[in-house]
């Protein structure tokens, strides 16, 4: 079976086109994944900064002293 060079070049061109599309799609997917990772990292950094700021703020303000629990007084027995 002899395949004509025109058919061979056509098949090769189609394969190269498919390969180019796959490579482009892979690059788009990787870029999208990187954007998602960057967004997650930014979100975590923002939340961490807020938490650290809250903790620092709480450390500056002393907690209100707790009132001592009132002792219950025993009721005097009423004798009749």
Description:
- There is one protein chain.
- With 80 residues, the protein is mostly helical.
- It has a domain at 28-63.
- It is built from one helix and no strands.
Describe the secondary structure blueprint for this structure.
Elements: H1 5-60
Based on DSSP secondary structure assignment, what is the total number of beta strands?
A: 0
Class by SSE composition: mainly alpha
* Biggest beta-sheet profile: none
Q: Helix and strand succession?
A: H
Radius of gyration: 37 Å
Please bin the fraction of helical residues. Answer: over 70%
Overall residue-averaged pLDDT value? 87
Shape designation: rod-shaped
**What distance lies between the first and last C-alpha atoms, to the nearest angstrom?**
125 Å
Quick gist of this model?
The protein has 1 helix and no strands.
Observed structural traits:
rod-shaped, mainly alpha, single chain, about 80 residues
